[in-house]
Amino acid sequence: QVQLVESGGGSVQAGGSLRLACAASGYTYSDSCMGWLRQAPGKEREGVAFISGGGGSTHYVDSVKGRFTISRDNAKNTLYLQMNSLKPEDTAVYYCAARSYSSCIYRPHDYRGWGQGTQVTVSS
Fold first, then answer.
1. Are 119 and 20 in contact (CB under 8 A)?
2. Residue ranges of the chain with pLDDT lower than 50?
3. Residue 111, Cβ neighbours under 10 Å: how many?
């Protein structure tokens, strides 16, 4: 079955950096658009960044553009999120997710699996 395991969360001061990783197994990794979503206390889960199955197309929520970079290594079945210039409002649990299709545009609400989440805390 689909397994997604995140790592790399932690606590950092504002302006700092963190790199999240997500190891995927149980399916053909390159068949899935992959994404990072986050959920802060009392808020709805939001999509942060997505990358197509081949890695050629990326999408970001406006609040992280220019600060976060999503990437993937299809040879290692691993997804990454480089987070720079972190702000207190980036504090949340970050989830790795695998969509059901390679394109991030087609049927964006269909997922094949989710990770357990990793906490990111940014202090001012």
1. no
2. none
3. 16
